[in-house]
Amino acid sequence: MARVLVLKAGSGAANNLIRSLKAGNASLDIAGCHEDPFVLKKSGAHRNFVVAASPRAFVRDLQRIVKRERIDLVIPTSDSDVMRIALIARELTCRTFIPHRSVIERCQDKYRLTTFLRRRGIPAPVTYRVSRLDGLDRLFARFGPRQRLWCRIREGTGSYGAIPVRTPAQVRSWIEYWEDMRGVPPGSFTLSEYLPGRDFCVQSLWKNGTPVLTKMAQRVSYIDNGSPSGVSSTPALAKTAYDPQVAQICTEAIAALGAWHAEGRLNGPHSLFFDPTKPAEELYDLDTDPHEIKNVVDDPKYAQAKAEMQALLKKYPGKPLAAN
């Protein structure tokens, strides 16, 4: 029986995920955890645990749950938890399916991400960093005549700190408010194209650098979270959709890492992901290498474990998979 641990259990996103996991595989053993015991009361997991909010105590509690409940996979459900798990992944004795920290940092910074994509010829909105408020007039002029632009904080979800603007004065007032009243550091905002049209969410599953499954939904309306933009990453209503051009752009964006591999600019885990072939034999120490990055099958230190597993394979041979 596979055991998973869902973070932020009791929140809307986590509960949706838990319901989907139960519907997809009723045999899954699902545990949940959250820092807030009152939110956790709403969790749909089979078992729930309160974890500490402080970073060090959170790691301690998470390690304890993973070990005691024999968790196979930890699933974060928020941007902040994705980064927290990425930072401690090697300290956990289970899988996380979290990409490298550098990839997460790039994707969670909207300025870095759009710059990365545009430099590789992938369509993305023209975006500039607002480094100085006294340079807003010049920054506006770089966009040319437009009805609206997006002013938003570089990081965060749910249109955090986002507002459509028409004039430099609106941008200046908006940023001054966030810096003065909300404590947002200077240089945290960007100004970018306001793109009209349909809004899609695309998720894809990849294997060896090739997409094998893509799911696309069009956001029709948004949950009112009080944002002056009226737009959020969380839809109130969405419908399954498919647009070949959107799918192609998303595929090219993810495949940009593949180009780095071909140019020899990737190493370590990133490079292994794109290897066209797999070794004939693989052996991993999940205690020290939970992401199965270092193949120790030829390491003398693991000779006894290798022999024991080879004997088990001979004793209990599995059936070969039928070719599709």
What does this structure look like?
With 324 residues, the protein is α/β, with parallel strands linked by helices. The protein folds into four domains: 3-98, NAD(P)-binding Rossmann-like Domain (Rossmann fold), CATH 3.40.50; 106-110 and 122-193, Dna Ligase, domain 1 (2-Layer Sandwich), CATH 3.30.1490; 199-262, no CATH class; 278-324, no CATH class. The protein contains eleven helices and eleven strands. Strand 1 (3-7), helix 1 and strand 2 (29-34) form a beta-alpha-beta unit. The protein is globular, with a radius of gyration of 23 Å.
SS strand fraction: 15-25%
Q: Would you identify the regions where 5 or more consecutive residues have pLDDT less than 50?
A: 319-324
Strand order of the largest sheet: 3-2-1-4
CATH class of the largest domain: Alpha Beta
Number of helices: 11
- In CATH, the topology of the largest domain is named Rossmann fold
CATH architecture type of the largest domain: 3-Layer(aba) Sandwich
Radius of gyration: 23 Å
Q: Assign an overall shape.
A: globular
The helix-and-strand class reads alpha/beta
Largest sheet: 4 strands, parallel
Order of helices and strands: EHEHEHEHHHEHEEHEEEEHHH
Give me the CATH superfamily of the largest domain. NAD(P)-binding Rossmann-like Domain
Which percent bin holds the helix content?
25-40%
Distance between the termini: 26 Å
Number of strands: 11
Overall average residue pLDDT: 85
